[in-house]
Amino acid sequence: MTSLVTGLGRLGRSLYARIALVYLVSLLVLSVAAAWIAVSQFDRLRLEMEQRMQIDLAANLAQVMRKPLRQGPRSSAAQDAARLILSINPSLPLYLLDARGNVIGNYTNADCPPDAHVGVAALNHLLGDAPMLPIFVAAPCSPLSSIFSVARIRYGSDQRPGYLFVLLDAGSGMSASLMLRTSSITRTLIVAGLLALLVSGAAGLILFALLTRRFSALTEAVQRFAEGDYSQRIAPGRDDEIGQLSRAFNDMAGTIESQLTALRENDRQRRELVATLSHDFRTSLTSLRGYAEQLRTSSELSPQTRQAHPDAILANAERLTQLAQQLSTLARIDAYEQPLRMEPFSLTELVYDVVGKFGPQAQTAGVMLSVHCTPRAISVAADIALIDRALANVVDNALHATPAGGRVQVTVTAEGGKAFIRVADTGVGLSAEELPLVTQRFYRTDSGRNNSEGSGLGLAIVQEICERHGTRLAIRSRPGQGTQVQFDLRLA
Asked: Is the confidence at residue 410, as pLDDT, over 90?
């Protein structure tokens, strides 16, 4: 019972229930309005037909009344002629009007006031060519309006012009409501109208159910998506508003799902990096401690060994310094509330300085490292510390990816208000699958995983430095053919 009440309450709050309620109320109101208009027009049609059929009644009666009226409107001959007409139809009010519409002859049993009057304009309208029926006029002895028949006539010995006026619906007792109760055709029309109302109401409810079913499916998919089922998708179906909404939901769901996948992958890589960095720090620290203890405790070391130990300690310290610098740079980039230290500087000098720092490393690895710049000096406006780090990371990656005998070239050009920095190597290159991943944090290529010195942060840092400077990092590479990395800066 509780579930039934809950279901009915949910149905009452649904879009379908609201649309159905508005539709049924509108249909009922329109049906009542149509019925009221039909009844009123039906009654008007009855009056029009009656006036149209008896429009010549006054003219026919005028043939009977013309001769008696020569003796006067109230003469015994006129009275006898009027009684003869009323004996045939006692409910037929007959009046004689003068040229101004004043009643000068009342041949009915009703009492009329002395100033009884009929509007002449309505009389002339009915006597005109092709009058628009029905035409109503106020009855001379009653405040009600009625249809009528009229004919021009002359009366009295001096043949004065006047009107013979006949009310047509007085005392008929036939109303629209009476016809609705007594006419079989009318009852048939009422039954047909009710059936049409029921059929249209049922058809509308079914149609609304079909239309709102797609909304219900969309709502259910959104609810499931909100509960954690991020694989929910909706078939768009027709290209209407609901279909467009379904496609928009599918696009949104796909974006959110891909972002969640990226977050999970980012978290996995972060945990992998933490483990790697912990291993690297622990290995370097253990090595440092071992060499230091040997130097302190052992007195039998050869001169060559005593010379090699400080070199190994310095190498491990340099390794730890590089790791700390990468983590510090990454933390600074992540702090977006900290503004960039924008300043103009010579990009040409910075490139030569960075390449000069990597000269010994390139010579040791057997790689030719060169610089190609335009003859004139190129100045840019940027954060010099971040650009130094970005260029150093790119050059360092290129040197590690290039085997002995290869070459790495740094090119600086200026065009269209921008300076372009390009680092090209003849190294192992990247596969098409790895290319979009190398700028993600903590991602390391297959060659990088075999190299314990890689942290997976180099190109990720470069990418974020470029984004903060409003530029884009472009990478092109083919396996076995080397890699080319390029970004641009605004000229100072």
From this structure: yes
Radius of gyration of the chain (CA): 53
Number of Cβ within 10 Å of residue 67's Cβ equals: 11
DSSP letter for each residue of 359-374: HHHHHHHT-EEEEEE-
Amino acid at 181: R
Helix (H) and strand (E) counts for the chain? 14, 13
Is a pLDDT exceeding 50 seen at residue 57?
yes
Sign (positive or negative) of CA dihedral 363, 365, 367, 370: negative
Rounded to an integer, what distance in angstroms lies between the CA atom of residue 481 and that of residue 217? 52
- pLDDT tens-digit profile of 158-215? 899 999 999 887 545 455 555 556 666 667 777 777 888 788 878 877 877 777 777 7
Cα–Cα distance, 212 to 71 (Å, whole number): 83
pLDDT tops 90 at residue 233: no
**What torsion, rounded to 10 degrees, do the Cα atoms 324, 330, 331, 335 define?**
160
Task: Answer yes or no: are the C-beta atoms of 371 and 410 closer than 8 Å.
Answer: yes
371 CB neighbour count, 10 Å cutoff: 15
Q: Is-contact 306 295, C-beta < 8 A?
A: yes
Enter the pTM of the model: 0.43
Average pLDDT on 85-107 reads: 86
CA distances from 395 to 102, 291, 432, 490 (A): 118, 31, 21, 21
Checking DSSP bridges between strand 418-425 and strand 407-415, what pairing results, if any? antiparallel
416: left (phi over 0), alpha (psi -120 to 50) or beta: left
pLDDT digits (tens, 9 = 90+) for 428-465: 888 878 777 777 766 666 555 445 455 566 788 888 88
> Which has the closest alpha carbon to 172: 36, 46, 42?
46
The model's pLDDT over 120-134, given as tens digits with 9 standing for 90+, comes to 999 999 998 888 889
Place of tokens 């996995």: 268
Task: State the pLDDT confidence band at 5, using cuts at 50, 70 and 90.
Answer: very low
Please tell me the distance from the alpha carbon of residue 346 to that of residue 380, in angstroms, as a whole number: 6
CA gap 90, 85 in Å, rounded = 8
**Gap between the Cα atoms of 66 and 60, Å rounded:** 10
The angle that helices 458-468 and 384-401 make with each other, rounded to 10 degrees, is: 150
Residue owning tokens 């969309």: 218
